Amino acid sequence: MDEVAQRRLPADHPVRHPSQSRAALRIAWAVLRLPAFLILLFLCKDWILATLIDPARITLLVIGIAGTPLARVGVFGATLLVLALIWLGARRLGPVWGYGVMMLLAVALAVTVFRLTRTPLWLAAPAILLLATNLLPDAIHDRILRRPRPQRGAMAMAVGVAELFFLRRYLAWGFGIRVAAAGPALLLASGAAALGIGGTALTPIEQALRMPPSARVLALGDFNWIELDRSGQHLFVTGHGLPQLLRVAVGNRAEPSLASSAPTGGAQAFAYDAAAREIYVFNEGTRTLLTLDAETLELKRSLPLPDLSPGDPWIAVDPGTDTLVIVSEADDEVGTPFMVLDRTTGEVRDRRDLDAGNLLLRPDASRLYLSFFRRRGMLMAYDLRTRSIVAEMPAPPRVDRMAYLPASDEILLANPVASRIERFDAATLAPRGHIEAIFGVRVMALDEQRGILFCASLATGEVAAIDLATGRRMGRFYLGPWLRTIQVDPARATVYASSRGGLYELGYGQLR
Prior knowledge:
Elements: H1 3-8, H2 18-43, H3 45-51, H4 55-66, H5 69-90, H6 95-116, H7 125-134, H8 138-144, H9 148-157, H10 161-165, H11 167-175, H12 182-196, H13 199-210, E1 215-220, E2 226-228, E3 234-237, E4 246-249, E5 258-259, E6 270-273, E7 278-283, E8 288-293, E9 299-304, E10 313-318, E11 323-328, E12 338-342, E13 348-352, E14 358-362, E15 367-371, E16 378-383, E17 388-394, E18 402-405, E19 410-415, E20 420-425, E21 431-436, E22 441-447, E23 452-457, E24 462-467, E25 473-478, E26 483-489, E27 494-499, E28 502-507
Helix pairs in contact: 5-6, 5-12, 5-13, 6-7, 7-12
């Protein structure tokens, strides 16, 4: 602005200096860039998971964190305290020597803790890097970046990196805020350590803090599908961590568990026909459908099914049509994912390209319901008498297990993403609204006598009891992360739950 133009402006008119404009832009960029980056990551999440990240590993990490929150808060506090004590002692040696001693002791601490908790050491790397970069003395930092301009350029362009690994300098560059180096470094490193430790190691601590007195651990292991026998005294159990199907005594705790005579190969699921006293389970390793005697768990017969699509299969038995249905999740899209078999002869009566994520049988109607987790958003009804699809309805993506509600003739469908249970008419599959549930709701079981719906979360390790008449949540109980299946025994007012880490029993007689 020249001298003449300045004389024409009112005396009280503010003159904006170029440096002020640059400062405003810098602050705006510092504030908005990280949220914008996170939004971009969210929009690209499907591509990132498909090409850059192993979804199974990420799922394990997220569930381990969500299922042990209190234990991780304790780890955070303990780590922060220990690191602060180390830093107070090491800083007396001077900036450079103190930094070196601090990092050596921090690395030794991380290796010890992560090995004791059987956590892969690579998960300790973020905590070590956050501590190393945020504690880096100015003398070393200025030697690496000698000129101010490259430092400012790095702060401006390193979105997500500057905020975490150089937080103190980022606050000074973006907002003019000066903080001590130790604060951000110790807080960020302690947080990363608390998030990185494996959930398996922290589960017993979380259970000691949160598991109700009415719950207990029946067994430790990797369990999936469970069903009570008709006496209610035994629980049939299978799972990825079990080479054989087990019958676990729940009525008489002194009775030893019984294992099937034939290996089941870590099967995910089975079907149990109480009237026929038979159990049907598919050994994916041998590609064979096994029939076991439910009383002795001896092998009665086997049926090779080499063309069933590979992937965890679900099985249903329908006495009304004397058929078995086996449905694979089809990890690889080869073979046939859906088969209807004659139970007596093993003849294939129908086969379809239906890679359902779960199935539910209504024996009174010989009707099978299928939900889909991966490749389509659909709820489907299949009539086993006519061997035809009689109804289908669009459903939300990533839905999980189902349950049948006889009182209102409804199909209930767990919607983990929305943390609710979708309701559908059992005949037409017309939507009937939803029931508010818990975060990550995955599995359900019903106590018809008391009108209670139990639902369990894959993520948080909790079981919730919901009053079906009012929709009111009657109670919420922590058992352990990665709950997979729940079964209800109304006679004993007991819920049984399986998980990736254990088998649980929960009494609910106190609910009103």
